[in-house]
Each structure stands twice: as structure tokens, then as C-alpha cells.
Amino acid sequence: MLSRRANLYVTEACFGPRDVGRLLGFGPALVLEITGETEPCKRMDQVRVGLKEALALGWCGGITCRVVHEGTIRLGHKVFFVL
Predict the structure, then answer these.
(1) Mean pLDDT computed over every residue of the chain
(2) Distances (CA, A) of 42 to 4, 32, 36, 79
(3) Between the ranges 6-10, 65-69, 71-75, where is the mean pLDDT highest?
(4) What is the pLDDT of residues 17-27, one digit of tens each?
(5) Mean pLDDT confidence for 38-62
(6) 29-46, pLDDT tens digit by residue?
(7) What is the 8-class DSSP label of residue 47?
(8) Number of H helices and number of E strands within the chain?
(9) What sign does the dihedral 57-47-19-15 (CA atoms) show?
(10) Quick check: 72 and 30 in contact, CB under 8 A?
């Protein structure tokens, strides 16, 4: 069972400090700027004991972003770095 508190969940992606300021494109229009690392909260341990600590390593808790260009996204849209 997948339990995750996230606005968007992207698989097969790794992010780190070097990505702050980079732009992510979603589908044909949505563009987000990576602003930092998401800090896992204590609620993660309600899902599984030790999960908060595990997610705190190496940006595993995810990223925070700001909207640069609004757009609609759909399940299956490709995610890519905007050059």
C-alpha cells in the first residue's frame, strides 16, 4: 500500500541541492521552479515507524516548488527539466 502526503508524486526521479532553481516541466504547459527540500513531518511515523528518519536522508522526502507557468497535468504526463 502506498501512503504518501504529496501534492504531486513523481516516480523514477532523484533530486538534490544542485537542482534548486532548476525548472521542471509537466505535460504541455505546467512549469515549476525547485525551491528546496521538503522536510518530512512526524506524521510519516504514523504510516510506518522510522519513516520520518528514513525520508530525511538525501532529499528522500521530496522537493518544494513554486509555480512559474500554470497548466493542467494528467496521469502519465512526462516530467522533464526545462532547458
Answers:
(1) 86
(2) 13, 26, 19, 29
(3) 65-69
(4) 999 999 999 99
(5) 81
(6) 999 999 999 887 777 788
(7) H
(8) 2, 4
(9) positive
(10) yes
User: Are residues 23 and 82 in contact, defined by beta-carbon separation less than 8 angstroms?
Assistant: yes
Distance (Å, rounded) from C-alpha 19 to C-alpha 63?
10
Q: Is the dihedral of CA 1, 35, 67, 69 positive or negative?
A: negative
Q: What are the residue ranges of helices labelled H in 1-70?
A: 44-47, 51-55
Q: 14: pLDDT confidence band, cut at 50, 70 and 90? A: confident
Q: Give Cβ neighbours of residue 49 (< 8 Å, ≥ 6 apart).
A: none
Cβ neighbors of 47 (< 8 A, separation 6 or more) are: 3
Work out whether the CA dihedral 35, 40, 42, 48 comes out positive or negative: positive
